Amino acid sequence: MHLSSRSRPRRTSAVVATLAAVTIATLGAGTAAQAAVPEAPTAPRAVPAAVPTPPSGFTTVWSDDFGGAAGSGLDRSQWLYDIGHGYDGGAWNWGTGEIEYMTDSTANVYQDGSGHLAIKPIRDAAGGWTSGRIETQDTSFAAPAGGVLRVEASIKQPDVTTADGAGYWPAFWMLGASARGTGAAGWPSLGEIDILENINGRSSHFAALHCGTNPGGPCNETTGLTSGERTCATCGTSFHTYGVEVDRSVSPEQIRYYRDGTNFFTVSADQVDATTWDNAVHHGFFIILNVAVGGGFPDAFGGGPYASTVSGRPMLVDYVTVATKTPGSTPTTGTGPVLSGIANKCLDVAGADSANGTAVQLWDCNGTVAQKWTLVDNSLRAMGKCLDATEWGTANRTPLQIWDCNPGQPNQVWEPYNGGYRNPASGRCIDDPGSSTANGARIQLWDCNGTNAQKWSLPGGAL
Length: 463
Description:
Residues about 1-35 and about 40-45 have low confidence and may be disordered. It contains 3 helices and 30 strands. The strands form 6 sheets. Strands 1, 3, 9, 11, 12, 13, 14, 15 and 19 form a 9-stranded mixed sheet that branches. By secondary structure, it is mostly beta strands.
């Protein structure tokens, strides 16, 4: 979380002001200009989305689509309500300076009868605020050794703006299991993964990993390892998906953050020491959804709440889902051509040249060794080499090549996805540029879009 943790000891106003200045200075150096994440063509939904089927190789282990009656509370076998201004034995005001009192009232936390959870902050006649903060009962959500944990929610941020939303602080995040019942005393070492945060009605969102020691330490606490501010013009008026993948199948291990399926931020294990990463990542987590009011993070961007801050604008959640992938869950296939969605074309090693760096291209299907591929442990292999994103690239238009296989290397990992293949490290798919039909078209990475230019068969299989 930027600026503060929900479990840090209470700060004096002088400390909050100092931290706000540091955070603003940090953003000015690297992220003051909001980074763009491509907008998905979403719109407000009258009909809720079903919990989606997970990507190939993943198994759903937990989900909730909030299908209860209008005005009803949550299933308490699945969720617990946080009450008050902090955990028992923990920091006051959740350690962040936020001012609301969290309740289990259906005035603050309820299902709307249209397939959504609503968390609504409300100001009373005396100027005090109540809101809601809920946690999954399950604290065991973890990436298996050698596998992947995937957590995703479809969320519409509160429909407020900078004119009337000062102090609003919605969030979707996870805490390490050892925070439960201890007042989160081990923060930040126990790990906090912030998947979505928004403050003050800004058209944006933030993500972060908190770990190590506080203050400072390997994870730059209390700011954490952050994405910076990411623009999203419609996040307060439309549903968007926010997700994270904790990937222990690649080396170095990664935590990848997604909005609408696009990977916009990644933290790698080699950014910190091994002990810090192990303490923060290699254990179970529980999920938290809440809308705070006020606190250190909103203070860093102008403060609030003020008299102009509107009461009663909820965060809506369509679904939350958790899936895992275990080692070996992506099958090894036979050897054969990888057919393109473009008729009579195949994935081809240029000139049947097995040298490192040889281009991978589109070519007429011909049954030669240059078109004999095998999917093994999330790698696509031909001629004794692996399909590789050039120079560890993750951007659109990164060309693909073959290179010596390095199992688990992020730029050589390909998972079946939506009729094609996705590289988890970039969140992008194998793509035929411009849906070209020309022999020699250089295959590339591109935002996953489900078009025929990204349809590829399993080796030896049919489309």
